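Sample log: Alpha-amylase/branching enzyme C-terminal all beta domain-containing protein.
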Amino acid sequence: MPTFALPVQVGGVGFDYRLHMAVADKWIELLKGNDEAWEMGNIVHTLTNRRWLEKCVTYAESHDQALVGDKTIAFWLMDKDMYDFMALNGPSTPNIDRGIALHKMIRLITMGLGGEGYLNFMGNEFGHPEWIDFPRGPQVLPSGKFIPGNNNSYDKCRRRFDLGDAEFLRYHGMQQFDQAMQHLEEKYGFMTSDHQYVSRKHEEDKVIVFEKGDLVFVFNFHWSSSYFDYRVGCLKPGKYKVVLDSDAGLFGGFGRIHHTAEHFTSGLPT
């Protein structure tokens, strides 16, 4: 489709963004291992590795995971615990708690650093538990490889959007977080801001800090350590407030960040 990216006025479709395909592949690569071994510099490099001034659409998950029988990000993180421990009136497990926290952080850092546009895919916004598989019969590829199909089954031929809308399930908090991310971008326009600067990729603390527009993003990927009085340098001195907190109770978190606390950058507060 040679005219796909040409302007509409000269006969093209006008699509001038590139799909940042490496990001979704990187998350699956990391999720197949141990999150305690994640390298902060490697994550940042993958998210920011694109040509200067080339606009990209980024996404944390794609059809490679959600459509062809592989595991969704949510299932990689929480596995079979999702079938028994996603009700708010029942107990949770460490897998569920860690999985929900990481799922939100994966989506937010992808949106924050991965490009100028962000794409959800087939229930990713609330952690769709299973892949989506359309009815299909057996086929033989040109290489001669035989693919058995799924006996034309409709068993997984649906997207469970009802899960994200069910207020008695933990999926609802994950969907609320996705909506909050969209509202954050709508209000601050950080994805297309000219100001982008990664100020910290700390491998021991497992902390990533970066600035986009007027916002400062702070991610703590450490599996056991929380921090207080953590010093973060910023371009603009002054007082900062929390505008989005993935650990808020509304999003299924534990509410460990105090939103009323005043946060000052280095130098004299204003």
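Observation: The CA atoms of residues 118 and 182 lie 9 Å apart.
Observation: Helices lie at 21-31, 40-48, 63-66, 73-78, 94-113, 161-165, 170-188.
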